[in-house]
Design brief:
Helix content is 45%, strand content 18%. It is built from 14 helices and 11 strands.
Length: 336
């Protein structure tokens, strides 16, 4: 009897020890879905992975973020609408500030105005200011858009690329250029003389290939990682927009979290932004050299042509600053 009892106790102890690793590896308290339009090698996507990594680290595994790249969770409108509906299918989306005006976002949308920033340093000065960029992150909740901003990202200035040979800004006149499905970018491209064509980002490569559009516009990372140079090898450095990206979260999912966990997301966002800033400038220089080696014709725009383009875009500023004139002036003043 004693021998049998000893065997039972020993077996029970062994079983309990075997369960320790399983119990120690507890499931996350929260699991969120993060949507990104670009592929895994794009810096925007890598910022998303960094953000997920920092959240996991700071929460000690309690909060998990799964990143879905290459439009797996849908195009931009699908993702933004999913945030508005409370998340679930999409909980986070890395959007662009120039795409938010159609959702009632006016202050943050100012960052998408053509030529509003004089340089990368001046842009980050605005984004990191407590009364400007940081204050604007809560605008989506304030206006009832259904999402809030966590942090900003930087993929560089957006330039125009075409399938046919161009030598300068004047050659954009009459060209069908794909833009995001947002009125601000349509108005910007119209001001530059092109014919804006809003289509899904995932369809851009094939649309150029089949002649639906003559080109598109994007920063160095997006142009390279999506291999747009294969169908549009003329890259015009017009820098028409230097609008930052922004990691957005469904407000309903945000409200599920404690203040401590909300603070973790904000801290992880700041760390991801800091990593982004260190990477992007060097990557742009490397990408230019790599693209030239691939046969891309990169066209620098003379200062006088840029000045003319800036003047042509003043009407766009007027159309999108109604009611936020003070914020626009503050953005300009802080860069002086």
């Amino acid at each position: 009897m004693k021998k049998t009892l000893a065997l039972v106790l020993a077996a029970g102890l062994a079983l309990s020890l075997s369960l320790v690793p399983v119990l120690a590896d507890e499931a996350p308290e929260y699991t969120f879905k993060y949507a990104e339009l670009n592929g895994d090698d794009n810096i925007n996507t890598r910022v998303g992975y960094k953000f997920a990594e920092y959240v996991d680290e700071l929460s000690e595994g309690r909060i998990k973020i799964d990143v879905f790249s290459a439009s797996q969770l849908g195009d931009e409108i699908t993702c933004l609408n999913a945030l508005q509906m409370g998340g679930g299918t999409v909980d986070f989306y890395r959007g662009n500030t120039n795409s938010l005006g159609d959702y009632g976002i006016k202050k943050m949308n100012l960052f998408g105005l053509p030529y509003i920033f004089t340089s990368r340093d001046s842009m980050w000065k605005v984004l990191e200011d407590e009364n400007l960029g940081q204050a604007f992150l809560s605008e989506g909740a304030e206006v009832g858009a259904g999402f809030i901003g966590i942090t900003y990202t930087d993929e560089g200035a957006r330039h125009t690329f075409t399938s046919m040979e161009i030598t300068g800004l004047n050659d954009l006149k009459g060209k069908k250029i794909r833009v995001p499905e947002t009125t601000l970018m349509m108005d910007t491209m119209s001001a530059l003389g092109a014919e804006p064509t809003p289509i899904s980002y995932s369809e851009l490569y094939s649309s150029i290939q089949t002649g639906v559009v003559d080109g598109g516009e994007n920063g160095y990372p997006g142009y390279d990682s999506n291999k747009f140079y294969e169908v549009a090898p003329y890259y015009l450095l017009d820098g028409h927009t230097f609008s930052p990206g922004v990691i957005l979260m469904a407000e309903a999912r945000w409200n599920e979290l404690s203040e401590e966990d909300q603070a973790i997301l904000k801290e992880a966002g700041q760390k991801a932004s800091a990593w982004n800033k260190e990477q992007i400038e060097k990557e742009e220089a490397d990408l230019r050299a790599a693209l030239e080696e691939k046969g891309v014709t990169i066209i620098d725009v003379p200062a006088e042509d840029l000045a003319a383009a800036q003047e042509a875009c003043q009407s766009v500023w007027a159309n999108y600053s109604d009611g936020v004139e003070d914020e626009l002036q503050a953005i300009l003043d802080i860069q002086k």
